[in-house]
Structures are given as structure tokens and as C-alpha cells.
Design a protein that fits this description.
This protein is an alpha/beta fold. Helices cover 35% and strands 21% of the residues. Among the domains are: 143 residues, FAD/NAD(P)-binding domain (3-Layer(bba) Sandwich); 117 residues, no CATH class. A hairpin with a 2-residue loop joins β7 and β8. The mean pLDDT is 97. The structure holds flavin-adenine dinucleotide. Flavin-adenine dinucleotide binds next to α1 and α14.
Length: 473
């Protein structure tokens, strides 16, 4: 019998499996797909390699959460630092998000001049640096008493940042600037959406500041694609079962039984990396089913439409662009498209002279359920995004070697989830209401972006650290 069975090899599942293995536990990691990483994986298609969803790794620097967990595992990833970490293109304006404050400030003040700009961006910068110095807080959700006790651990953080936590980001920004034009507001809104996964009016200013300021921290490109990172990250996990979907979990008095199509495994503890919205179906036990069912209402159906492209080009590109248009693009939720290029020298991803491109835009999974229109709708959006990328970044049609797309339906088919935004922290969905890493069911835990502490590498890794603390290991 295993000490721990981890269901799913996303950022959360792979990291906790590797961490528990490094601490001496006997761990089995189960992944439905042949490649590891979930939303942060990479895959091959007709000879080219693409990152599936995530393309940037934030939080790998001294004093930050991803580095802390990787160090505890004894894992050193192969990375390239990206600076600027993203280049924002809005009409004729190009604003590189440099790590260096003055370098970035010069371009933002040129493109979006405002008397309050310095004060605003210094506040964003300071809140980022201050937040990552805070420690000692944790989140328990198994029972009322443990939850209240854990919420007390956030008291110093609440007291320090309360004036930014109590107000929605849109109102705060409007008041702060005392007038801000629609173009500048869109520049801020688009950047916040890709990190916080919610619009400015739904989140507090503190969350918005962390989203706007992540570029002041180190950001990295992962050499060879994300799945390679996960292969190395999990190399010391005792058992990694790929192409092994867990179809059912049965609670016994002293253990859990995990059923795949071929075999039944036993473990003392189970850690689910499947989303909380989709986990009820795994269980036969009514209590556990009900526990997960109550979280299904948190599913906001936010998802992504993906465009994957390979191009042959002698030009040089930045690693990441955000292209902001004037209108919300049809069948999406956004005016902005996030476009990532493979590194010109990363031949594990693409041979010299060829770039692999992963582009994403926010959509709603319910836009992709109409079988009759699905193909035509997909082709249409694929065409719009392809044209936007080629025209904005001055790439010739003739340079395109391959181009295809994926919808929420594609994600549901491969990694069992169509909601891809995670459980965003908003004004309504704040700490006491978040699903946690622990559950009221003994020896059953969660990890990943639909539970504490939300999405992206830093968010999921905060959850991994939280789980480590709750497990007392
Ligand atoms: C388009 C897009 C772009 C993004 N860009 C970035 C970025 O640049 N930087 C960043 O930090 N974050 C980014 N994110 C967010 C980030 O990718 C996610 O928050 C993170 O990867 C989620 O990790 P997770 O631990 O929740 O696992 P998931 O990614 O949800 O993976 C779960 C895994 O579990 C497996 N699984 C599910 N059910 C079962 C089962 N029953 N049996 C076996 N296996 C199962 C799935 O196949 C999957 O591999 C992006 C997300 C998307 C969608």
C-alpha cells in the first residue's frame, strides 16, 4: 500500500508528489495523459513541439515560492530569464514590461502619460515586494475551528494591506488617477485578466496590484517545453503511471482504493489534482460526493481558446506579447491575445529558424457546446487570431508551416477540465470561501488551481506549501 496516491500531474500534483518523495514517503502519481503537466504541459504535433497552455514560469527566484518548493525537492530547472517578460502592443503603442522599474516607467509614461503615473506604479511595485516578504499564514478548511484558526494567521497581512483589500480595483484606479482614459484602463485591465483571471471590477486592488506587478519579479522561459520540466521534477517519485486515468476512488476503513481501467491500487492518503468542480464523479461515498458537489457552483466556465502555430522566420521575436485590440473578439471574453514564442536557440522545441507559437485568449466553455456550429466557429476564431498575430508581428503568410487550434472541449477531452481559469480570488470569492488543500474527509486532500491559493505557478505552489504544512511533513 502506498503512503500517498496523487491523482493528476499538473503543477500541484507533480510538485506535491516530488516533495513527498523527497521527504521519504512512498508515492504513486497517476496521470490520464501520456505527458505530464496538465495546463502547463507541452506536446508534439506533426514534428513540432508546443506548450499546451502556460508559457511563463514566475516565482523562481530567491525568497519566492516556486524556488522554495523546487529547492526542497532538490530540483533545478533549465530556464532562460525573460526581460522584458512581456511586450504589450495596443494599437501603435508598444510597452515592454521590463523588470527594472525606471526602464519600464519611461515607456509607460511615454505611451500613457499621467501626472499620477509614478505614484501609481511605485505603489504596485511596493505592494509586490512587500507581499512576498509576508510569511506564516496558512489556510485550513477541514473544520470550522481549524478554519478560523488559520484565518487568524492572515491577520497581520489583512491589517497591513486592508485599505487595498476592501475596495474593488476598478474604483480604486479611477479614484487614484482622478480620471483615466479608456485606452489606459484597457491596458491595465488586459494585463490583470491574464494573471488574476477576473476583470478589475470583480477583484480587490491588492490582487490587481500583484497581477500588474508580477513583471517586476523574475520571469522565466522553460527550456525544452514544460513537459520536460515535469519529467525531471518527478524523476524521484517512486511510481509515475502515465496514461492511467483514475476512474473511481472507493473509501475503505483503513485506505482508499483507486481504480484504473486495468488495475486497483491502494493508498493510505489521496491527493486530488483534478478540479474541485469535477471531483465528485470519482467517488461512490455519498459524503465525499456531496463535499465536492457543493463546489460545483464555483465553476465560472472561464476557459481558453488556443492557437498553435509553427513559423519559419529569420526575424527575432520576444518570448511573450500581449496584443490588445479595440473590441471583444467574437466567441471570446477579451480584447486581448497572449502570444508566446519559443526561444530562437531552443532546438528541443523547434529547429533553428523555426518558432513554435502558443497563443491564448479567454473564452467561456459554454460558447463551445453547440455541436452543429462547433467546427465553423472554431475555424472562424482560428482565422481571426492567426490574422491578428501575422499582421501585428509582421509575419508573412508564406512563413506559416502549421496552424491549428484548441477549445475548452479539447481540454475537457485531454485533461478532464473545460474550466481553465482556476478558482479566481475575487471580492465575492475571498479567503473564507475558497476550497482548501485539506477536506473534512480523513486523509483526503486537494491541490491545484481550483483550491487555495488559486491559479498560475505561484498560486498553485502556495497551495503545495500550504498542503505540506497541513500534512505536517
Ligand atoms: C491557456 C493558459 C495559459 C496559462 N499561462 C500561464 C502562464 O504563462 N504562467 C502561469 O504561471 N500559469 C499559466 N496558466 C495557469 C496554469 O497553467 C495553471 O494554473 C496550472 O498549470 C494548473 O495546475 P494544476 O495543478 O491545477 O493542474 P492541471 O493543469 O489542472 O492538471 C491536472 C492534471 O490532472 C490530470 N487528471 C485529471 N483527472 C484525472 C484522473 N481522474 N486521473 C488521472 N489524471 C487526471 C489531467 O490530465 C492533468 O494533467 C495558464 C493557463 C492556461 C489555461
Amino acid at each position: 500500500m502506498k503512503d500517498f496516491a496523487v491523482v493528476g500531474s499538473g503543477v500541484g500534483g507533480s510538485s506535491i508528489a516530488a516533495l513527498l518523495s523527497a521527504k521519504g514517503f512512498d508515492v504513486a502519481l497517476f496521470e490520464k495523459e501520456p505527458y505530464l503537466g496538465g495546463c502547463s504541459s507541452s506536446f508534439s504535433h506533426k514534428g513540432y513541439t508546443y506548450n499546451t497552455g502556460a508559457t511563463t514560469l514566475a516565482g523562481y527566484e530567491e525568497g519566492y515560492i516556486v524556488k522554495e518548493i523546487f529547492d526542497a525537492i532538490g530540483f533545478v530547472p533549465e530556464l532562460i530569464q525573460t526581460d522584458p517578460s512581456i511586450v504589450i502592443i495596443q494599437g501603435a503603442k508598444t510597452t515592454p514590461r521590463y523588470k527594472d522599474f525606471e526602464r519600464f516607467f519611461e515607456s509607460v509614461q511615454t505611451n500613457y502619460p499621467h501626472a499620477k503615473n509614478r505614484e501609481f506604479w511605485e505603489l504596485v511595485y511596493d505592494l509586490n515586494k512587500e507581499f512576498y516578504k509576508q510569511s506564516g499564514h496558512y489556510y485550513a478548511n477541514a473544520g470550522v475551528f481549524s478554519k478560523l484558526k488559520s484565518l487568524m494567521s492572515f491577520l497581520p497581512l489583512f491589517l497591513k494591506f486592508q485599505k487595498y483589500l476592501r475596495v474593488d480595483a476598478q474604483s480604486f484606479i479611477e479614484d487614484f488617477f482622478g480620471g483615466i482614459n479608456a485606452e489606459y484602463m484597457q491596458f491595465l485591465e488586459s494585463q490583470v485578466l491574464i494573471v488574476a483571471q477576473a476583470p478589475l471590477k470583480e477583484i480587490n486592488f491588492f490582487t490587481a496590484a500583484l497581477a500588474l506587478g508580477y513583471t517586476f519579479n523574475d520571469n522565466h522561459y522553460v527550456k525544452g517545453g514544460f513537459s520536460l520540466l515535469f519529467e525531471t521534477l518527478t524523476q524521484n517519485v517512486q511510481e509515475v503511471h502515465k496514461k492511467s486515468e483514475i476512474l473511481q476512488i472507493v473509501k475503505r476503513s483503513d485506505c482508499f482504493e483507486l481504480h484504473t481501467a486495468k488495475k486497483i491500487y491502494e493508498a493510505k492518503n489521496v491527493i486530488l489534482n483534478s478540479t474541485v468542480y469535477e471531483s465528485a464523479r470519482l467517488f461512490t461515498d455519498a459524503n465525499i460526493k456531496n463535499y465536492y458537489k457543493k463546489y460545483e457552483k464555483l465553476n465560472n466556465h472561464q476557459s481558453s481558446f488556443m492557437l498553435y502555430m509553427s513559423i519559419k522566420s529569420s526575424k527575432e521575436f520576444h518570448h511573450h506579447y500581449q496584443i490588445i485590440g479595440d473590441e471583444v473578439i467574437k466567441n471570446t471574453l477579451s480584447k486581448a491575445l497572449f502570444v508566446s514564442f519559443s526561444d530562437a536557440h531552443d532546438e528541443k522545441i523547434a529547429p533553428k529558424g523555426i518558432y513554435s507559437i502558443t497563443a491564448s485568449i479567454h473564452t467561456d466553455s459554454r460558447f463551445w457546446v453547440d455541436e452543429a456550429n462547433y467546427k465553423a466557429q472554431k475555424k472562424e476564431l482560428e482565422g481571426i487570431l492567426r490574422k491578428t498575430i501575422l499582421e501585428t508581428l509582421k509575419i508573412d503568410e508564406a512563413e506559416v508551416l502549421e496552424c491549428f487550434s484548441a477549445t475548452s472541449k479539447t481540454f475537457a477531452h485531454y485533461i478532464n477540465r473545460s474550466q481553465l481559469g482556476g478558482n479566481a480570488i475575487t471580492m465575492k470569492n475571498f479567503l473564507p470561501f475558497l476550497p482548501g488543500n485539506d477536506t473534512p474527509i480523513k486523509n483526503l486532500y486537494n491541490v491545484g488551481d481550483t483550491v487555495y491559493a488559486a491559479q498560475g505557478w505561484p498560486g498553485v505552489m502556495l497551495g503545495v506549501k500550504n498542503l505540506q504544512r497541513l500534512l505536517g511533513v
